[in-house]
Amino acid sequence: MTLPYATLPGDLDRLIADEHVVANRLFEHLEAGRGDRRMLVDQVSYGRALHAHAEEEVLYPALAEIGAAPDAEEGRDEHQALKRLLVLLDHADPGSHEFERALNKLIGGIRHHIEKEEREFLPALRRAVGAEEMGRLGERYLAAKRSAPARSHPTVPPTGRRRGLMHVAAGFMDKVRDRVSGRSNVLATDASWLLDTQAQRILDTWSRLVLAPYELLTPEQARQQPSLADAAMEILQQDGRPTDPEEVGSAADVTVPGPGGDLVVRVYKPLGQTPDPVPVVMWVHGGGWILFTNDDYDASCRALVNRTGAIVVSPEYRKAPEHVFPAAHEDVLATYRWLRTNATGLGGDPSRIAIGGEGVGANMAAATCGQLKQAGEPLPVAQVLVCPLTTTAQYGASMRDAADARPLNRPLLSWMMMHAFRGVTDSLKDPRVDLLPLSAQGLAGLPPTLIVTTDRDVLQSQGDEWCARLEAAGVRATSVRYAGVMHDFFGLAAVLDKAAHAQEEVAVHLRQAFGEAPAAHPLDGAPMRGAKVIG
């Protein structure tokens, strides 16, 4: 079920509801007989351990304060029963009678617990304390999760003086056990078996590298964690393959003026560039407005240079939470305007500039086109949106079907928005970021658009819907969906064949827009109007 009212990213009830959707999706994999049962249960156990600890630290005391002490006590009692089942599952073998019996009881118990919380506990708390306090409680809830033991401990009292000391000791022992058993290596991967072999290897490798899933960390901690690009590098090293970046003519950072101060922009030029001006692509990297830099998306830019023969320019925009919305959007728009004025000096053709990006970078690329149109300024000749965020709403079936996906799952999306819009939550409906509500009149005349999505991405539904709305407004729009791969896959061509295919698909779209004869597509021919799925 879902909450019967609106919430904001970072609100206590939104955080808890997101975890409920993830848990239920993991249960659906188990019930359908897909995925690695041990791994799925380990992820359930980990998630519920953190969830129970944080609720006992934050939710239940808050319920007691509003006079709902019996509800709080009921929740604690249910947690104790569920913890005992999780301990049984931890020691039993998948497929055994003991394991399957405990699992069935756990699934039923957690679903009952979810229904009770979402129908009664959480709405009652919101009514009593108000929206602003739910945001503060959400911050405390996340902090409690960061300090929680990684396993369930029914012998630890849910309240009282001994609880803190016993949890510290339990947490230390859990880390040792998880490291020795290898359990910690699987907590951030995709256990559904819905990915292809290459994509699964990338996420398994990434999961072994990261300290914890990003959404459990502070922004500062998350920025220190490896990216999928680091996982790709690890795989290349394991296979004894070259790890040098794809060669281009040059890659250099330049400084350009921005609305909040100087911006660093990376300029990639093609090999053997002639004196004649060449097309230009502005490519905006992703990271939820919080994480990653041009270094993490370097492979995407190099691939585009070599597959299009264009100069690629990638802006390094300001990040949240230090610089909340609309800082990043303003930086991207400012960079595009600078590029239009200075393309000739870079060796580029100012009449053949395209724009694109990945994730929230795709959101900012699309927003830039909309702002230029509104201002009556020249538009790019094409845009490319890879795994785009096109609305701040939890939109579409993929928000449930891929709730447990990695690297971007539903809780991480809320975590990103919580930090990116902190203090400016009314801007969640700003037309620069919330694109789907834009009118057909507002979309008409936008440049030819290629949208690339994947089926293991919470953003897939909104990417498809954006394509449909562009088409309805008369824009030449194409949607290409890649099956069996994850969000943020585009730059991983060195270890993922479908990423290489997607890069060529994008290059064909761009070469057509630049007025150049596109090379024959290796599999499917030139992109078509409408949508297609690549398995």
Give a quick rundown of the structure:
This protein is an alpha/beta fold. It is built from 17 helices and nine strands.
Notable characteristics:
9-stranded mixed β-sheet, alpha/beta, 13% strand, 535 residues, 49% helix, globular
Description of the molecule:
This protein is α/β, with parallel strands linked by helices and 535 residues long. It has helices at residues 12-32, 37-65, 69-91, 97-129, 131-146, 162-181, 197-209, 219-223, 228-238, 298-308, 327-342, 360-375, 398-401, 410-420, 440-443, 460-472, 497-513, and strands spanning 250-258, 261-269, 278-284, 311-316, 348-358, 383-386, 449-456, 477-486, 530-534. It starts with 11 loop residues before the first helix and ends with a strand.
Number of strands: 9
Q: How much of the residues is beta strand, in percent?
A: 5-15%
Low-confidence stretches: 517-529
Question: Which structural class best describes the helix and strand composition?
Answer: alpha/beta
Number of helices: 17
Main sheet: strand order: 1-2-4-3-5-6-7-8-9
Give the averaged pLDDT, no decimals: 94
Helix proportion of residues, in percent? Answer: 40-55%
Radius of gyration: 24 Å
The topology string of helices and strands comes to: HHHHHHHHHEEEHEHEHEHHHEHEHE
- Report the major sheet: 9 strands, mixed
